[in-house]
């Protein structure tokens, strides 16, 4: 039996922009279906929002996302994350982990995700990795990035 998991991100009207951004970051194919595509009348509010979206690349990266029905972009993003005195403090229920095989590969993803992001922990060598960093991207997703241990 083979089991896989895929993160499914919930947005408040910005799923399309997030999916397109992640498609660029990860050189991936982006698929988007709207509520109208699934039968909601085109004139209904929110019919152009994402009911199903995915990002998939040739290396196996996969991410799903949609827009929460009725939620507005002005609604707050759940939780926050920060570093204080060498400790990560958060009230978020999850972080998105991204591991790469080399520091060069990781730096490419870091640089792309960091555009418009809040840097929590700058990308640098750590006790357990040749590169580790943490950021919350422009869409409110907190990423933990590191170089996979040999």
Question: What would you note in describing this structure?
Answer:
The protein has two domains: 8-67, 2,3-Dihydroxybiphenyl 1,2-Dioxygenase, domain 1 (Roll), CATH 3.10.180; 81-147, Signal recognition particle alu RNA binding heterodimer, srp9/1, CATH 3.30.720. The chain has 150 residues and is of the alpha+beta class. The model has no long low-confidence stretch (mean pLDDT 92). A hairpin with a 5-residue loop joins strand 3 (50-56) and strand 4 (62-67). The radius of gyration is 17 Å and the shape is globular. The strands form three sheets. It has a four-stranded mixed beta sheet, covered by helices on one side. Strands 7-10-9-8 form a four-stranded mixed beta sheet, with helices on one face. It is built from two helices and ten strands.
Give a concise summary.
The protein has 150 residues and is an alpha+beta fold. 15% of the residues lie in helices and 36% in strands.
Task: List the total number of helices.
Answer: 2
Strand order of the largest sheet: 1-4-3-2
Indicate the radius of gyration in whole angstroms.
17 Å
In quaternary terms, these chains amount to: single chain
> Are there runs of 5+ residues with pLDDT below 50, and where?
none
Overall mean confidence score, pLDDT: 92
CATH topology of the largest domain: Signal recognition particle alu RNA binding heterodimer, srp9/1
Bin the helical content: 10-25%
Task: Report the principal-axis shape.
Answer: globular
CATH architecture of the largest domain, please?
2-Layer Sandwich
**Major sheet size, sense and barrel closure:** 4 strands, mixed
Number of structural domains:
2
Strand content: 35-45%
Distance between the termini: 26 Å
* Count of β-strands: 10
What is the chain-wise order of helices and strands?
EHEEEEEEHEEE
Computed structural class: alpha+beta
Question: Could you name the CATH class of the largest domain?
Answer: Alpha Beta
